[in-house]
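Thread: Newbie trying to understand structure tokens

Hi all, I'm a second-year student working on a class project, and my supervisor (Dr. K.) asked me to get a predicted structure for one chain before our next meeting. I've only ever worked with sequences, so writing a 3D structure as a token string is new to me. If someone could post the tokens and maybe explain what I'm looking at, I'd be very grateful. Here's the chain:
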Amino acid sequence: MRARGPVSRPAGAGRPRARRSLTAAAVALGLSVALAACGGGEVNVGSHPAPPPVGVGSVVTGTPAPAATGAAACNPEASSLAPTDTDFDGPTLQKIKARGRLIVGVSDDGNLTGFLDPTTHQEEGFDVDVAVQVAAAIFGTATGHIQYVAVNNAERITDILSGTIDMTVDTMTITCDRLQQVAFSTVYFEAEQQLLVLKGSNITSMAQLGGKKVCAADGSTSIAAIQSDKNHPVAYGVVDFSDCLVALQQNDVVAASTDNTILAGLAKQDPNTEVTGPSLESEPYGIAMSKDSPDLEEFVNSVLEQMRTDGTWEAIYNKWFGTTLAPTPPPRAQYAD
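---
Reply by user tm_fold:
Sure, no problem. This is what the structure looks like when written as tokens:
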């Protein structure tokens, strides 16, 4: 379950629709925003139903959806629109600026990536800092111009389609299936799926987990990978990845498996756990947006390109993962043909 603090509910806005147009050069305007201020903003839990109690999970049956083929096949890492030097004031950006704030779907329980600080009640984490850079580029500063909506995996796309949020920045892997529903930015983080186990378990790979319960969030690419694994582990689904830590602590499962960024945050919460095993699958993260907002898509890609070249990406990475993950350069931008 998400750990929620006091929240406020500012008025929402309708879904923006757009045609392609923006100025790439204008994006640099807000990128000097201080990293120390990256957590500022309001959290709006919206009107989603309350998740089930902590510890509740279920065995996931059936088979995962087959990989996209034919016309639906794609290159997830080269599926996004390249920035253009036309008009900074595209229709979607005009609506966001007129509203006065960028509305972003984030996790509030992803330690290191997106979490609600229990003391300040502010959103913090790598993904949050990336979202702040986008808001700062639009408004000149993110302070007072960004609103966070707490989402779980099942809500990330539906909230975009309903217009509840402008974008999702939430460790969201770009896939061909998801690209049928929403647009994505270029890859802003290249994660890897691994295992989280209790120290002393001697578990080092999925090969040891045949017939054993392995936890992941419902609707994630991670749970599909568990279902597809040749060793036949039993997929155990929960609402949020933090529920997997509880399930592991209570011996409801023998391991959790998802992105190393998320697992690093869980391991930091409980020193009796550890991240282990080889990479099971690459997880290229993208910022998800409406397919009706190509101007916003191009603008976000301009922001990400600026972050790659001016050192902002490395600064944010070192801030959140410098002591838990190996040093790495930002992923290179690839665009759709």
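A couple of things are worth pointing out once you decode it. The first strand starts at residue 42 and ends at 44. Confidence is low (pLDDT under 50) at residues 1-56, 67-71. Feel free to ask follow-ups in this thread.
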